Every structure is written in structure tokens, then in C-alpha cells.
Amino acid sequence: MANLNLGENIEVNTELIKKAYSLAIKVHSKSSEKAYDVEGSSRRSSDPIIFSFSGCWSENSWYDGEPFGVTEINLPLLFPSLRSIGVNENALVNKAFLQRFVDKILGNSDFDREVQKAVKENKQILFTGHSSGGSIANLATIWFLEKYLKPEYNSKISPSSPLCVTFGCPLTGNHIFSHSLRRENWARYFIHFVMRYDIVPRIMLAPISSIKLEFQKVLQFLNAKSVNLAHASIDTFDALNFHMKVMKNASSVPFGTHVFCTGNGKLVILRNPDAILQLLLYSSQFCREEECTDIAHRSLQQHFGYESDLQDSFQMLNVVYLESEQLEQLPLSSDSTSSDIATINSALNDLGLSTRARLCLCAAGELEKRKIGNKESIDLKKPDIEKAMKYLEEDYRLNCENRGLGCYDAFKLQETPKDFDANVKRLELAGIWDEIIEMLKRYELPDAFEGLRDWVLLGTRYRRLVEPLDIANYYRHLKNEDTGAYMIRGRPKRYKFTQRWREHADKMPAESSGESCF
């Protein structure tokens, strides 16, 4: 039995992937309204439990009101991690998909009981779905990770780690959704298979309001294919209009590992979300006007063409990996013949990538490289942070004790050169931390940064040590009289961010770790 290597020491048996697809399609065709099926509970102990989620084909099961049909995922008990920690902004998610998951899956006591049983038996759980069923599988996997994955088990993939495998799955959330999964180191549990022309993984790139006229006809076509597995038909004009409108816009952001099927046996694997987005946009575009109608129809037909394509691909296992280092060195011309990049160039040609598309992929790799470089620059400032904090912790605190004062009172009085020196250190530290916070606000650091334990601990030490001095300085200059109370109007973001880091890392309630404010 062959394994598909997906990077990060993750290998998935190809027979398991094919079985997952079979079950995902099977749950579509059932006449009942059951939202999911489960298989594997009666098999060998080594067999995974597979939960397959059905898709829906009514318009309101995809779209609920807003231009992009999204809502803020403000469910702290179910999804506390789906947020940008420091910025304190919740992720956006497709509202209809979220509602279906909450009502049909979590509202079903059998689902929770079956998951608990699998966890107690230490069995691997695989969540899968085709089309919008894949989005439900995504949410189910995140729910599982929030509820059952212990932090000490998140450092490496274990036999009991969950997996989510989707086929032709629409994008589920926005950039914060993707960012939070990468921060938690959870993105690696998600594997998304995408056919080159399949339009469904790209539908959420466009505001639903812009494709509403064609959308219901497309859903009816896909439903006919799902239920009857027959050659359903759709008007050429509707198919073409739908394809062109979707490909003009972009709002949702991918996450996890994407496996692109080129159509001739090759598999292209990416994990960089910006690069995945570019590939979604460019790999299904047409170069010549005469291709329009053909590609528009193929973009719908391929949504149910995964089985045969995966069969061919798994027999060949001709895999091309586009990691950051490969993205930086992509051949910009389809005619490149260098032996080092011939395999990559062949795969890019199979996906029909133009020079512009290749430049966008290179830019995605460069952006990730720049984020890593920014973190390395900040890491170099750790000794400066430690040195300044050591002065405040040891020299200045001892000086204050010798004067019979606490650091807050002594700093507020500013009567000695030591107080002046402490203020210089406070300002030096503020400059470094404000630079970090600004980078975080602009998402210029790696997504994992706010979850790094060493920075969480350093930020907590800094906040506890220096914020009392900031408060003393605030009231010494009577800023409260024209600005207002410190906690309401005067507290710098560097303390709000670092407090939220600790509360998230230690799973504390929001605003419960304000000890640095007395």
C-alpha cells in the first residue's frame, strides 16, 4: 500500500484517501437527510473512524444574506482559537456552513457520543467531505482540536491525531481563520484535494451577491450530478458567466495542505496559503477566448471527477512539492529547461500557469521569507530586552528598597538619577515592543509568532515588570485629567497584546490576567 507524503512528517495511505472520497460521495446520494455517516467502529483497532459529512445544494445552505455570506465566529466555548489574539478580532466564516454544523452536527448527541467513544479507544479519527460537506468536515475537525487535542500532543503527529481530508471543498473562512490555524499548528491536519478546473473550491472567492443569478442553476446542476451521477446539463451562457464572475474576485483565504490534481497524473502540493490562493486563481483561467466555453463546462464537470483522477495519480505518485524554497526559484517561463527545475516546470505547465501567475507564486514565497526575516530580526533584540529588564529587576528594585519605596512610588517621584535611568530603560523597551506590535497588526510576522512559548513568557515578564512604571508615569504627568483613566484611554497596546497572549496560551478567561495593573 502506497503512502502520500505531504510534508511535516505526514504520510497518508492512498487507499485511505480513496475510501474517504468514496464515503464522502456516498453520503451525498443517500435519500435521507442525515448530515453525516460514520464508519469503522466495528473494524480492527488499527482502523480509523471515518466521519463523512454530506453537502447541501439549496442556495440558503451556501449563502445567508451578507455579500460574501460570512459571519463573525463569536463562539468562544466552541472555537476559542479562531481569532487574532493581540488584535482581538474574531475570524469570519461562512454563515450557512457554520449554522449547519452547529444545528445538524453538534445538535446531534450521537455525533458527540461517537467521537468520545473513538477518543477513549485511542483510535484515529478522519473527518471527510466532498463539496460543502468538506466545509462541515473542516469545522468538525477544528471543534475536535479545540476540545480534545492536548497541547503536549501538538508538537508532532501521532497515530491518534485527527485528519481532515476534503475533495472540491469551498473555502470556509477569511485570513484570520487561516492565520489562527497556522498559529495553533493545526493547519497540517487538513488535506484538501482540488482538481485543476473545479469551480467549487473557488466559489467563495467572489461575493455571492455577484453570482446569485447563476448560482442556483449551478447548484441544481451539481445536485443532479450528485444524486443521479448522470450527465446533468447547464446552459453554456450560465456556466461561462458563473466561471468568469467567480474568477474576478478574492476574499476568502485557504488553509492546510492543498493537493492540486493536474489532470494527467501529477500532484502539486502546497502549504503556503498565499501561494495556494494564487494557484486557485490562475490554474483555472483560460488563455484564449476559444477556451472559454470548454473550461466553463469542465469547471463544473470536474467537481465529480476526483475518483478517476486520484486513481491515476496514486498509481504514478508523481508528486511536486512547492515549499517556500521552491517558490522563490520558480521558472518564470514555460520554456525553462534547466534540469534542476524541469519537474517543477512541467507541473506548472500542466496547470497552465502564465508568467504572471508564476510571478505571483514567487511573491507569495518572498512574503513568507520576509516574515521569517522579520522574526529573526526581532529575535536578535532579545538580549537587549533581557538586559534592560535585568536592570529594572535587580539594580533599580534594590535601589528603591534601599530608599524604603516600592518601584511604583519611586518612579512616580523621579527624585534620583536611578529613576531617570529606569525611565530610559522603560522607553527603550517600549520602542522594541511597539515595533513588534505594529508588525503583528500588519501581519508581517509568521502566523505562529503569538503562540510561541518563549515570546509569551517574555511578554508576560515584561508586562508585569514595566507596566507599573508606565502607570506611574501616566499619573505623574496628570494624563488622566485630559485623557481619562489609564485602563480606559491610556493603556498601550503592547500590554494589551502581551496580556492576551498569556490568557490564550493558558486558556484563561479574557481580561483575567491584568495583574500588572495592580
UniProtKB/TrEMBL annotation:
**What is a biological process (GO) this protein takes part in?**
defense response
Sequence ranges assigned to domain EDS1 EP in this UniProt record: 394-516
Q: What is this protein called?
A: Uncharacterized protein
InterPro entries, A to Z: AB_hydrolase_fold (IPR029058), EDS1-like (IPR044214), EDS1_EP (IPR041266), Fungal_lipase-type (IPR002921)
GO cellular component, alphabetical, reads: cytoplasm; nucleus
Q: Which UniProt keywords apply?
A: Cytoplasm, Hydrolase, Nucleus, Plant defense
Domain named Fungal lipase-type is located at 90-205
Q: Where in the cell is it found?
A: Cytoplasm; Nucleus
Molecular function GO terms recorded: hydrolase activity
- Primary localization: cytoplasm
| Superkingdom of origin organism | Eukaryota
